[in-house]
Amino acid sequence: MAEALMPAAELSKPGAGSAAAAEAMESGCAAAPALNLGDLDLTTDEFILDEVDIHIQANLEDDLVKEALRTGVDLRQYSKQVETELQRIEQASIKDYIKESQNIASLHNQITACDSILERMEGMLSSFQSDLSSISSEIQTLQQQSVSMNLRLKNRQAVRSQLSQLVDELVVPSTMISVILDSPVTEQEFLEQLHELNSKINYAKELSFRETLACSDIQDIVDRLKIKAVSKIREFILQKIYSFRKPMTNYQIPQNTLLKYRFFYQFLLANERTVAKEIRDEYVDTMSKIYFSYFKSYSSRLLKVQYEDVADKDDLMGVEDTAKKGFFSKPSLKSRNTIFTLGQRGAVLSPAELEGPILIPHTAQRGDSRYPYETLFRSQHYALLDNGCREFLFLSDFFMVAGNSALDLFNSIMGKTLSMFLKNLSTYLSDCYDSIAVFLCIHIILRFRAITVKRNIPALDKYWEGVLELLWPRFELILEMNIQSIRNTDPQKLGVLDTRPHYITRRYAEFSSAVVSINQTFPNERTNALLGQLQVEVENFVLKMAAEFPSRRDQLIFLINNYDMMLGVLMERAADDSKEVEGFQQLLLARTQEFIEEILSPPFGGMIAFVKESEALMEKGQLDKLRNDEARITQLVRGFSSSWKQSVEALSQDVMRSFTNFKNGTSIIQGALTQLIQYYHGFHKVLSQPTFRSLAVRSELINLHHLMVEVKKHKPNF
C-alpha cells in the first residue's frame, strides 16, 4: 500500500518504476494467500498463452512491425531507440510546460475567478428562484380573489337587473298619469301609454301571485288608471258603433278606424271582460240590424227592375205555340223560344261581370232598364260576398277570434240576413219555371263559393250549400217537366206539317247548347243524366213527327233538317266532342246517306239496281246469269247518256229547295254526285267483265273522267 502511494517524481526516474513495481508485486504475491478461483482463475498457463498468441497476432498486423520484420531490424536496438525518442519527447514536453507556466498560471487564475463569479451567479439564481416561488403563490392568491370578486359582481348585476325591472314596472311615471287622464284616446301617445299601463297591470298581477309587498304600493293608482282608461275606451268604441246607425253611413270607414285601435278591445278583454262583452254585444246587435235592413231594402228594390215577362208553368218545351188559354189566364210570352235561349245571358258568368259592380236599382229605374233574374241574383249575392268577407276579416282581427268562434260570431251578425235570403229564394223558386235562370244561378253560386275558398273565408260555406240545396231540385223539376211535356206531345195537334226544322227541336237545341256550354266549367253528373233523358225524348219526338209525312223522302228531309239545325246550334256553344254533338252527327250522317240513295233512285234507279245485282253475282262467280240482259244494258247505257245532265240539274234544284241550310244542301248534293260517280264507275267495271266485253253498246259509255269534269260544273256554290 505504501509503494502504491509513492511520489510521482520517484516513479518517473528511469528504472525506479520498474524496480518498485517488481518489488511490490513480489511482496504482494508473497503476502497474498493462495485462492482457488476455479473457472474464474485468469492466471492459468492456458489463458496466458492464448492471450499472448492474440497479442502477437495483433502486433504482427501493425505496419511498423511489418516494416521492421521486412527490413530485418534488431528489435532490441529498435526498442532502445524508441525509448530514447520517448525520453526526448518527454523532455521537450516538460520544457514546453515550463515555457508556458505563466500562461497556465494565468489560466488557473482566470478559472478561479470564473468559479467565484459562477458561485455568485448561483447565489443570485437561487435567490431569484425563491422570489419566483413567492410571486407564484401571490398570483394564485390574486386569482382566487379575482374569481371571488367576479362572482360577487355577477350576483350583484343579476340582483340589480331584477330589482331595476321590478322598480321600473312598479313605478308609475307622471307622464302616464297625465296622458291617461287628459289625452284623447285617438292620440298616438295615449295608445303608447295604454300599452305601458297594460304591461304594469300584468306585472302587478304576476307579483301579487308571488306575494310581493311592493305591489301593494302601486295597486291603487294602477286600478284607478285602469278604470279611467276603460271608461274612455268604452265611450270611444260605443260612439263609433253608434255612428253605424246614421242613415247613408259608409260603415266601412268607422270599421277601419276601429281596426286602427284594435288594441283597445284587447285591453278591455284582458282587464274588464264585462265591458268587452258589452261592446261586442252592442256591435253584433247594431251590425245585424244594419245588414238585415240594407239587404232587405236592396233585394226588394232589385226585384222592381226584373223583366216583367217571366216563364210560367205553361211555358214548356213541348207546348205548342198555337195552344189556347182561358179567358182569365195571363198572356203568354211574346216568344216562348226565348225561354230556352241563352243569348247574352251567359255573360253573367264571365269574370268581368261576375265580379263587376253591383246594380244600383234607382239608377236602373230612372233609365227604364230591366234585367233577367240571374243578373239580379248575381248582384245581390256579390254584395253579400263582398260584405261577408270583409265582415269576417274584421271580426277575426278586431275581436281576436278564429275557427268556430269566428264562425259563431259571424253567424250571430249575418244569420238573420242569410235566413231572409234563403226564404226569399225559396219563395221565388216555388213559382219559377225559367230553367236557364235557375241553372245560371247555380253556377253563379259555384263560382262565388270558389272565390271564398280562394280567399280562405269559410263564413259563407253553409249558406252556399243551403242555396244550392234549393236551386238544384228546382232545376231538376223544371227539366223533368220539359221532358214530360215532350213525351206527351201529340204530333197531330201541332198544326200544319212542314219539312223545315220544328220549333220544339229548336227549343231543345238552344236549351241543350246553353246547359252544355255552362256545365263544361263545373261538370255535374245529374245535369248530364237529365240532358240524356231530354235528348232521347227529343229524338223520339222527331221520329214521331217524321212518321206523319206520307213519303219517305219528306220524312228524311224533315229528319235531316232537324238534325242539322240541332247540330249547328249545339256546335256554336258545346265542345265538338260532347256526347250530344256526337250523337246528332251520327244520326245526321245516317239519314243523309239514306236520303242520297232516295233521290238517286228515280233518275238512276235502274243502273243502281243493275250495279248492285251484278256486284252480288260477281262475288259469287255467277255473272253469266246476266249474259242475256243485253237489251236491258243497252237501255241503261243510252238512257244515262241522254238524260244524266237534266237529272243532275233537277236533283240539285230539288235538294236546294228542300233544305233550309244551304250549306247542308250543298253537302248533300256533293254527296249525291259523288255516289252517282261511284255507281257509274261500278257500271263501267261490270261491263268490262268478260261476260259483257263483246257488247257493242260499251262504246257508248261516257268516259269516267269526262263525267267527273261535267259533274263538277253542277256543283253549287253557296
UniProtKB/TrEMBL annotation:
Domain Vps52 coiled-coil: 96-268
Alphabetized UniProt keyword annotations: Golgi apparatus, Protein transport, Transport
Family the UniProt entry places it in: Belongs to the VPS52 family.
Vps52 C-terminal domain span: 285-596
Name of this protein: Vacuolar protein sorting-associated protein 52 homolog
One Pfam family matching this protein: Vps52_CC
GO CC entries: cytosol; GARP complex
GO biological process: endocytic recycling; Golgi to vacuole transport; lysosomal transport; protein transport; retrograde transport, endosome to Golgi
GO molecular function, one term: syntaxin binding
Organism: Cyprinus carpio (Common carp)
InterPro entries: Vps52, Vps52_C, Vps52_CC
Primary location: Golgi
Compartment(s): Golgi apparatus, trans-Golgi network
